[in-house]
C-alpha cells in the first residue's frame, strides 16, 4: 500500500484560510461543517513597563491547518459500529460510506483531531476524504492546490518524508500521537510541544 499523507509547513502559513474556504466551497458544505480547519494558537501577555506603557512579553502566535490525517490506526474506524468508516487498501485514505452510516457520532467523539463532523441536514457523518476522486484522476487535494503560500503539500508518505523529513505532529494545539496520523508537520519556529504549551486557541467558536 502506498499510504498518502499531507505535509504542512507552519512557518509558511499566513492564516488566510484559503485552504479551508476552497474545500468548503468545492464540496458545498453546510454552514456548521468543515473538512479542514485553520487553527490560530497564541500566547504571551502585555506588561506595564517603567514608562507606563504596555509592552508585549513572550507574545507568540502561529497557525495550524488540520484536516483528517488518514491515520495508520484511525480511531474513527475502530469505533464505527456499522463499518461505515473505510480505509482504502491501496492509498490509505479514510472515508465514510454514506450508505452504511447511521449518524451515531461514535467516530466524531473518538477522533482526537475532530475530523469527522455531523451533518444536521443529512443526519450523517461527513469528513475529508483527501479528495480521493481528484487523486484517483492524478490530481491533488483542493486545499493543497489552493494554498497561496504553498504551506500544504500531498503525496505518498515516503515521498513527503524524503522531501521534508519526518516532521513532528506533537506540537500545540495538536494532541498526543495515538493513532499514527499521516501528517508531516514542519513546526513553526515558535511552536510549543503538545502538553507543555502556555498558549491557547483563539479562534472564535463559530470558526470551528
Automatic annotation (TrEMBL):
Species lineage? Bacteria, Bacillati, Actinomycetota, Coriobacteriia, Eggerthellales
Keyword annotations for this protein?
A: 4Fe-4S, Electron transport, Iron, Iron-sulfur, Metal-binding, Repeat, Transport
Q: Which residues form the signal peptide?
A: none
Entry keyword annotation includes 4Fe-4S: yes
Q: Which organism is it from?
A: Enteroscipio rubneri
Domain named 4Fe-4S ferredoxin-type is located at 4-32, 58-90, 92-121
Query: Which residue stretches, if any, does this entry annotate as coiled coil?
Result: none
Name this protein carries in UniProt: Dimethyl sulfoxide reductase subunit B
Q: Which GO terms describe its molecular function?
A: 4 iron, 4 sulfur cluster binding; metal ion binding
Amino acid at each position: 500500500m502506498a499510504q498518502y499523507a499531507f505535509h504542512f509547513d507552519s512557518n509558511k502559513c499566513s492564516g488566510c484560510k484559503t485552504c479551508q474556504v476552497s474545500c468548503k466551497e468545492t464540496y458545498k458544505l453546510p454552514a456548521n461543517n468543515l473538512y479542514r480547519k485553520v487553527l490560530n494558537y497564541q500566547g504571551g501577555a502585555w506588561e506595564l513597563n517603567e514608562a507606563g506603557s504596555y509592552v508585549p512579553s513572550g507574545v507568540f502566535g502561529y497557525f495550524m491547518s488540520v484536516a483528517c490525517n488518514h491515520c495508520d490506526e484511525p480511531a474513527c474506524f475502530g469505533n464505527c459500529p456499522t463499518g461505515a468508516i473505510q480505509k482504502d487498501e491501496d492509498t490509505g485514505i479514510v472515508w465514510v460510506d454514506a450508505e452504511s452510516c447511521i449518524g451515531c457520532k461514535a467516530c466524531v467523539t473518538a477522533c482526537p483531531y475532530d475530523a469527522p463532523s455531523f451533518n444536521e441536514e443529512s443526519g450523517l457523518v461527513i469528513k475529508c476524504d483527501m479528495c480521493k476522486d481528484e487523486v484517483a484522476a492524478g490530481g491533488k487535494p483542493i486545499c493543497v492546490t489552493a494554498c497561496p503560500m504553498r504551506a500544504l503539500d500531498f503525496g505518498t508518505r515516503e515521498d513527503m518524508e524524503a522531501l521534508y523529513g519526518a516532521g513532528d505532529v506533537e506540537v500545540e494545539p495538536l494532541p498526543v500521537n495515538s493513532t499514527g496520523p499521516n501528517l508531516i508537520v514542519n513546526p513553526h519556529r515558535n511552536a510549543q510541544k503538545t502538553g507543555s504549551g502556555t498558549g491557547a486557541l483563539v479562534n472564535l467558536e463559530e470558526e470551528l
